[in-house]
Automatic annotation (TrEMBL):
<protein>
    <submittedName>
        <fullName>Membrane-associated phospholipid phosphatase</fullName>
    </submittedName>
</protein>
<dbReference type="Pfam" id="PF01569">
    <property type="entry name" value="PAP2"/>
</dbReference>
<feature type="signal peptide">
    <location>
        <begin position="1"/>
        <end position="30"/>
    </location>
</feature>
<dbReference type="InterPro" id="IPR000326">
    <property type="entry name" value="PAP2/HPO"/>
</dbReference>
<dbReference type="InterPro" id="IPR036938">
    <property type="entry name" value="PAP2/HPO_sf"/>
</dbReference>
<keyword id="KW-0732">Signal</keyword>
<feature type="domain" description="Phosphatidic acid phosphatase type 2/haloperoxidase">
    <location>
        <begin position="223"/>
        <end position="346"/>
    </location>
</feature>
């Protein structure tokens, strides 16, 4: 006992010795240290011993869980070394298969077939009415908006002409149709804005995702590239069909305010003077909207994609008013088409991974689940994204 606890033994010995000395000192001296004082001295010694022993014990480390937002996005690889599952938000994980070569091409007929059922659903009724009303309102103001845009361009020294330099030109004809392969680059600022909607720009974006996905074995990047291909070409087919049905004049060749409509022009008539018939709807903004939507839907954790994409689309829209290629009323339908085909392509190109029910750490094999403490009312809100027709956003609801 003495060898194991020398400090404790000495303190106990001293504490017991104090009342003995007080008793042997006589009645007068015994009164100077009454019995309660002796008990207090013993308690003090025992308390000091307990504190010393507790101080020597190792203290357990308490792990504080990190919030979900502070954890890095770790995407495990499968047996083939490919990244297939991506957790983009708490409880939201998407699975992407590796696309087959040219899968985007033979998915175009499927997307075209699904478009009517997707766009003309009952829940989209109000959106379609608003889309039509907005187009009509813009049509009324078309001439004013084009004139105003060109006046602004002149005041800031922005050239209205859309001029480009041809880097590559390979002639190609199918019957009477002239379909050359050419690659042009803009040579002024307004043309640079206009080039944001060029097919080469978006094919370059799609190719970048394909190259990155191939190098990193990243299925999401490969699927994004494939979905961009099918969304862009599906949108382009519908846009071209509508252009050839409506035959609206572009502003810079218009023979009257807001341009004329030549419904159902013949193929040869259309091909002989395309600007006289191809204003409605816009193909540039439709393609741009498809690209932004596909990327934003597949990478929702990167919140800058939509603001940056929509900002660039705004510059593109202004440039087409300034150079007289499009009217403002050409925009709503084109944007809606690009959005719809992008949503269809993304919906068909990934699957939601069902999350297993979280294991409650308070359960220790008793067969009973200990209920957590209820959250205060201000922490019961549910924040969730939504997509309604051509509109996206987020909602917050209170669960009582």
């Amino acid at each position: 006992m003495i060898s194991l606890y020398p400090r404790r033994t000495s303190r106990l010995f001293f504490a017991l010795l104090v009342p003995l000395l007080a008793h042997s000192a006589g009645p007068a001296q015994a009164r100077e240290l009454p019995a309660p004082a002796a008990d207090s001295a013993i308690a003090t010694a025992l308390s000091a011993d307990t504190l010393a022993a507790e101080a020597q014990k190792p203290k357990p480390t308490r792990l504080t869980p990190l919030p979900m937002d502070s954890l890095p996005h770790i995407h495990p690889r499968d047996a083939k070394g490919r990244i297939t599952d991506y957790t983009v938000a708490p409880g939201v994980t998407w699975h992407y298969d590796k696309p087959k070569p040219f899968e985007w091409a033979y998915h175009i007929p499927r997307d075209l077939g699904q478009f009517p059922g997707f766009a003309f659903r009952k829940e989209n009724k109000e959106t379609l009415i608003e889309l039509a009303a907005g187009s009509v309102a813009l049509w009324v103001a078309d001439q004013y908006l084009v004139d105003w845009s060109q006046d602004v361009g002149k005041s800031i020294g922005l050239k209205a002409a859309s001029t480009q330099k041809t880097l590559i030109y390979i002639p190609f004809r199918i019957g009477s149709a002239n379909l050359p392969f050419e690659f042009n680059v803009p040579d002024n600022l307004n043309s640079t804005f206009y080039f944001l909607g060029d097919g080469w720009t978006h094919l370059t974006v799609a190719s970048s995702f394909w190259i990155y996905g191939g190098i990193k074995k990243d299925n999401r990047a490969l699927r994004t590239s494939s979905q961009l291909g099918e969304a862009i070409f599906s949108t382009g087919l519908v846009v071209q069909a509508m252009k050839r049905l409506t035959g609206r004049q572009s502003p810079y060749v218009a023979t009257k305010d807001r341009g004329e409509w030549h419904l159902f022009p013949s193929y040869n008539t259309y091909q002989n003077f395309v600007p006289n018939y191809d204003a409605f709807p816009t193909g540039h903004l439709a393609t741009a909207m498809a690209t932004v939507t596909v990327i934003a839907e597949n990478y929702p954790e990167y919140h800058f994609i939509r603001p940056v994409g929509y900002g660039l689309m705004g510059l593109l829209g202004y440039s087409m008013l300034n150079n007289g290629v499009h009217w403002a009323s050409d925009y709503p339908v084109g944007i809606a088409l690009g959005y719809a085909f992008a949503k269809i392509a993304v919906r068909n190109g990934r699957t939601r991974v069902e999350q297993p029910e979280a294991i409650d750490p308070t359960v220790h094999g008793t067969g009973f689940r200990m209920l957590p403490h209820p959250k205060p009312w201000y922490r019961r809100g549910l924040f969730s994204p939504y997509a309604y027709g051509p509109f996206t956003g987020a909602s917050w609801s209170l669960r009582l």
